[in-house]
Amino acid sequence: MQQTASIAAALDTFAPDVVIHTAFRQYDPELFAVTASGAGLIAAACTARNIRLVHISSDVIFDGEGQRPYTEDDAPSPITDYGRAKAPPRRWCRRNPQATIVRTSLIYGIEPHDMHTRFVLDLASGRKTATLFTDEVRCPIFVDDLAQALIELAATTYVGILHIAGSEALSRYQFGALIARYWQHDVARLQAGSSLASGLRRPRNCALAIERAQVLLATPLRGVSAVLQSAS
Questions:
Q1: What angle do CA 152, 156, 161 make, to 5 degrees?
Q2: Strand locations in 2-143, DSSP E?
């Protein structure tokens, strides 16, 4: 298979000590080919070469029906195609004795704008119309904090599952309001609504418990409010 050969050639050429695997697709036809199967090829190639692997997973591996933050010991229960595509890598990574699976949440930045920020600003400026749910909870993480945490983690011997997310659990609407306010947009233009009332089958409370990462890592896992305040 061409993909297998390409991965093998890249690893043999660069001979890395660690691979941090971040590639994914979420909404296009290559969702399973990249997010699931592609991750399996990377995991197998790293295992065969005794390379440490840090694989990035997601909080939507859970169904979001819990009443408390999910811990590393909670079993996956995906209800979306993206969540289901993120499930198989957990099994493949277990075959690598040096692998860590990192579950994270919404990743946002300041400059350049990430997809979540662009979406909120489009709503706040009237370029798009959509509802931000008040009953879908996530733990957004600043991209710089996540990158620093992953580099720090890669140098450790920690294996298994680790949650690396922001320390502040926010609804989609709360997150949007903070982003809009930071960029000096009118928060009143954001439309709030209920995911449950919409009838859509979506993960709701996907808050992640991050105490294990906070003990293991020196990198601060800041909440959105703290990040935006420090950037002001």
A1: 90
A2: 18-21, 52-58, 99-104, 107-108, 131-133, 137-138, 141-142
CATH number, domain containing residue 125: 3.40.50.720
Helix axes 172-182, 224-231, angle to 10 degrees: 0
pTM: 0.93
Please name every residue paired with 141 in a beta bridge, in sequence order, or none if there are none: 107
In the chain, what's the furthest Cα-to-Cα distance?
54
- Model confidence at 39, pLDDT cuts 50, 70, 90, reads confident
Extract the tokens encoding 217. Answer: 């890592």
Mean pLDDT for the chain? 92
- Residue-number span of the structural domain to which 45 is assigned: 2-231
Partnered with residue 193 across adjacent β-strands are 133
44 CB contacts (<8 Å, ≥6 apart)? Answer: 92, 95
Region of 160 (left: φ > 0; alpha: ψ -120 to 50; beta: rest) is left
Count of domains forming the chain: 1
